[in-house]
Amino acid sequence: MIKTRLAYLLVSSLFFISFTNAADQKANVEAFFTQMNKEVDFEKEIGHANDKDQAKVLGWLSCVYGAFVLILLFIPNSMSARWALFGCGGFMMSVGLALLAYSRKSVSEAPIPIAEIELD
């Protein structure tokens, strides 16, 4: 058993050592950190904020899932199981409705960043 583990250790070590090149490794690490430290240009990479579209889709999805869980109330269960289903389904529905309400809010109702507020 010990011989087998030592053989696995030796073979796997030789495998990884054979594919490791110090210059390539260092270049890969430098490229990674250069890419990681680069600032994100939201307009260039994404284009526009799509939070409301995502909230609408997730809101409808959550409402559908919540409705399905609430339909499970009609399956004969104990009263405690029905309350648990009602709690889970109701919570999912309330989250979905909150997301839908957020997605329908007009842009003019969005909060103004503090930097743009002018004090008289």
From TrEMBL:
Q: Where is the signal peptide?
A: 1-22
Keyword Membrane (UniProt) = yes
Q: What is the protein name for this chain?
A: Uncharacterized protein
Q: Which residues cross the membrane?
A: 57-76, 83-102
Keywords on this record? Membrane, Signal, Transmembrane, Transmembrane helix
